[in-house]
Amino acid sequence: MLLRTLVACLLLLQSALAYREKLDLRPLPRNSLLASFSFSLASESAPTPDDISHYGLFPRSVGQIIRSSHATEIHLRFSQGWWDASEWGSLPEQGAYAGGTGVEVWAWVDGADLAEAEKRWYELVNALSGLFCASLNFVDSTKTILRSTAPSLDSNKYLFHGSLPSESVCTENLTPFMKLLPCKGHAGISSLLDGHKIFDSKWQSMALDFTADCDDDSCKLVMSQRIDVVLDVLRSLERQKHSPVPIPRRVEDLMCDETKPYHSSEKCFPLPTAPTVKWLISEIFGKPIVSKCALETVGESEASELGENAGYNICTHITDAWSLSRHGGNVLSSFASKACFSLNENEEFNLAFDCSNTSSVSPITSAPVHIQRSMTGRGQQHGGIQAIIRNPSPTDPITVTYFETLPWFMKPYLSSMTTHLSGPDTLDLSSIDPIKNITYKPFMERVRSTHLELTLEIPAASTLTLSYDFDKTLIYLAEYPPDANRGFDVSPGILRVVSQNDEITYSMRTSSLLLSLPTPDFSMPYNVIILTSTVMALLFGTVFNILVRRFVYEEDIEADKKEKGGLKQRLLKRFRKDKTEKKSSVKSAG
Amino acid sequence: MQEKQRILAVFFAAALLRIATSLGFPGIHAVLDQRVELTTASSSFKQLREGLYLYKMGISPFDGGVYHQAPLLLLIFDILQKYCGSIDASSIAINAVYCGLDSLAAWFLVKISQSGKFAGKQKLDGWIIASIYLLNPLVIATNLARSTSVFSNTLIFGAIYFANCSIPLSILCLAAASNLNIYAIYLLPPFIFLWCPTKSVAKCALSAATFAVSMAGFTSIGYFMSDGSLQYLRSTYGTLLFFSDLVPNIGLWWYFFMEIFDFFRPLFTYIFQLYSLIYVLPLTLRLHREPLFAVVTIMGITLISKSYPEVGDLGVYIALLSLYRHIFTNVRYTLLSALVVIHALVLAPNFYHLWIYLGSGNSNFFYAVTLVYAIGIMLILTDTLRATLRIEFDGGEEPRKAVAQI
C-alpha cells in the first residue's frame, strides 16, 4: 500500500533528518525529459500535540491544519497531462506520487464517530483549499468517498477520498507549494520551479504528503513534497529561441519512422524528434540552480546507506550516448549510467547535456499493468463505461484493485456489468471469474456519488474487458455549469497492483472522462412556468366549471327570457328603476 | 356462445401477439424499456432488475438512487426468480406473468361490463371491450416494455370487479395497487361509494379502515425487507412525491422542476401534489351516483397530474371509458381530442430523438409535445365528464333537448 511505502521512507528520514531535497533527471525516448523534484521535511518532536514551538522548518500553517482537523495523514495530488506508459514505462516511484487529472485529496481523520470525522474532513478540505488556492472547498458529500475505517487507540480513523477532475492545475497551486519549502524557491533545486516551464509539459504531477507521527508522549510532523514532470526538450528549446514560426527541419535532422510500409530512402515519415540534441538545465528550466539551500541537512542513516552518494542533490540517469559537462557544484559519482552532483552554497550550478543518439536512454522498466477506460454508446440518455485492463506479464497473473467514483447524475447498473477475458489460447479463460470481490455503494441524488471497488485477478498475458451501462439524468437548471454543453468530468479510476502479501506494488490512474448530459433551454424558466401553469389552470378551470354549474334546458331559458324580457328590456327596466329611485331619494333629500 | 368464442379469440390473439413478439424480437424489451414515454422511475423493469440484483448482493436497494419502486414488487420478483431462475425480460416466466396480467385485466374489464352494475346500461360487446384493452398499441408497448405499472393497472381493474362481488378482495386489490402506484390512493373516496352503496357511515368507515390496515400491511413489507430501516419510504414514495429523480417523461413535472428557481422548488412541489389531489373529493361528491365514473375521471386526471406518468395509463383510461358506451353519443370533440392525442403520441418519440440523439432540436420540442398531450387528455376528460353529467341531468335517458350550463 501507498501508505506503507510512505511510512517506510519516512521512518528512514525520521532518524535525524530535518530537510532534504533531490532532483533526478532522466531522459526519455523521443526527447522527453523526466524531472523528479523531491523535498522531505520533518518537524522536531514536540512533547505534547499542543506545543507549537517545535515545528522547526515545518510550515506552521500546515501544522495547525493537521492539529485542528485531527488528521494523521493528508495526501494531495495536483496532476495534468497523460503519462504514456508504452513509451515511458512505469510511473516514477511505482506511481506512489502520481495523481489523476485534476486535484485529488485523501486523508485519515480521527473521530469518535463518523459524523465528527466527517465534520473535521470538511474543515480540512476547506482549510487546504485556502492554503493551496484550489477549489477543494467544492469537495462536498457528493465528491467524498469514505474508503475505509480503522479502529485507533481511543477513537476511530476514517479514510476519506475526494477528487476534482475538472480542476485545472496551474501556477496558483505551485506558488503555495513552493512557499512551504524552507528555501521557498530562492535557493536549492526549487529555484528551478517556474510555472511557465513546469506546466508547459506533457505530464506533471505535484504531490504533497503530510503525516503526523505520534507516539505516547511526543508528536512529529513529516512532510514530503514532490513534483514529477515530463518535459518536451525540443519544445522547451524552441521556446528558448523565441521562434513562434515553425521552421521545416533540415534533411539531416529528420528521423524517419522506419516501420511505415512506404519508408524508403526517398520517402520519410518524420518522427517528432531529433537524432542529436544539446541542452543546458538553464535552457530547459529558464535559469540555473541559484545555490545550495543552506537549510538542508544530511542524516547519518542516509550517509551510511548511500555511501559516496550521500548528500547528492542532482542525479542523472543516462547512457553512453550522453556526455555531461558541469558548471559549479561537486561530482559525487560519475558512472556512465548515473552521475550525481551536490550543490555548493553561493555558487550557481548548471549542467550541459550533449547527446549523440536521443533514442538511447537508460533502460525503462515497463509498467506491470495497463488500463484504458472509455465511454461507449451514443446520445444523451444512456451510455456505458468500458475499462480494458491488460496484464503484460507472460508468466504471472496479477491481482489488482480497481477503484472508481461516479458522480450522482450517472446512474450505473451493476446488474449490467460484464467481464470478458481474452488471452493466449493455452489458457482456458471461460471458466475463470476475474472478479474476486465487489465493494459497491450506490449513489444517492445530490447526497453522495457511486463508489465502486473491484478486486480483479487477471491471468498472465491476458486482457480483461470490464463494461457496464449507465443512465444519464437531468439536473436542475442552476446545477449546470456555465459551459453546460462541454460536459461533466468523471474522476479518473484508480488501479492498484496488489502483491501476495496485500501490499500495493504499483498504482496508476486512468484518464478522466467527459460526460455530456442532456441540457434544457437555459432561457426558458419564465416561459415554462407560464405555459405549464396555463395548461394546469385550464384543466382546473374547465373541470370545476363543469362540476359546479348546473344544467338547464335551453327551452327553459327561452321561457325565462320571455317572462323577464330580453337583455335590452331588462337593462332598460333596471335603468328606469334606478332613475325613479334616485329621483325619489333626491326628492326626499330636498 | 358466439360472443364467448369471440372473446376467447381476442384473448388468444392478444396473447399470441405478445409472446410471438417477445420470442421473435428478444431485444425489443430493452428498446421499449428505454423509451421515456413508456417507462419511468416508478415502473422501469431495468431498474427493478438492478434493485433485485443489489438485494441479492446484500446491498439495500433502497439506500441508493436507482430503485424507486414498491418493495412489494421486489418481493414478487424475488420469489419469481427463486422458482423460475432467470428473470430476463424475454424469459418464459416473465412472458407468462405479463401476458397473464394483461389477460386478467381484460377479463376483469369484460366482467365489469357484463355485470352492468356500475357502468352504463348500453354496453359494447365483450370482445370489443377486450380488444380495446388488449390490442391497444399503448397497452401492448407498455406490456412489452415490461413496465411494472401493468401490475397496479390489473389490480385496479380487479378492485373494480371485486367491488361487485367480494368487497374484502376489492379492498385488498386497491390497497395493493396503491402500494405499487401511490396515486391509486386517490381512488379510495369513490371506491368507498362502490363498496357501500347504501352509504351507511359505519360500513364506509369499516371499509376505509380495512383499506388503511391492508395498505399499512403492504407498505411494511419494505420495513422487513430492509432489516428494520425506514429508508425505503424516502427512496420509493419520497421520490414519487418530491420528484427527486429528474428524467424526462410525458408529464408536466420534469421540465417545470428542472427550470424552476431553487427557492421556489419546495413550494411548487407541494402545489403540484395538491393540484392532483384537489380533484378527488369534488369529483367523488358530484359523481356520487356513478362512483365508477369518478374512478375513471380521477384516473384520467392523474394521467396529467402525477409525477411520473406514462402512456400506458392512457390505454387503461381508454379501456375504462369503453365501459360507457352511452356517453359516446354526447361527447362533442371526439375527432379533435383524438387527433390531438395521436399527434402528441407520434411527435413525442420523434422530438425526443431530435433532442437527445441528433441534437438538432432542443428540450423545448419534447416539452411542447407534453403540453399538447396534456391538452388532448384534458379535452377527453372534460368532454366525457360533461357528457356524463348531462346524461345524469336527463335522468339516464337519451337526451333529446338542448341544454346549457349556467
Automatic annotation (TrEMBL), chain A:
It holds the Pfam family Gpi16. Keywords: Membrane, Signal, Transmembrane, Transmembrane helix. Residues 1-18 form the signal peptide. The chain crosses the membrane at residues 526-548. The keyword Methyltransferase does not apply. This is GPI transamidase component PIG-T.
TrEMBL record, chain B:
The chain crosses the membrane at residues 124-144, 156-176, 183-202, 208-225, 237-257, 263-285, 338-358, 364-381. It is a multi-pass membrane protein. Pathway: Glycolipid biosynthesis; glycosylphosphatidylinositol-anchor biosynthesis. This is GPI transamidase component PIG-U. Keywords: Endoplasmic reticulum, GPI-anchor biosynthesis, Membrane, Transmembrane, Transmembrane helix. It comes from the Eukaryota. It is found in: Endoplasmic reticulum membrane. InterPro entries: PIG-U. Belongs to the PIGU family.
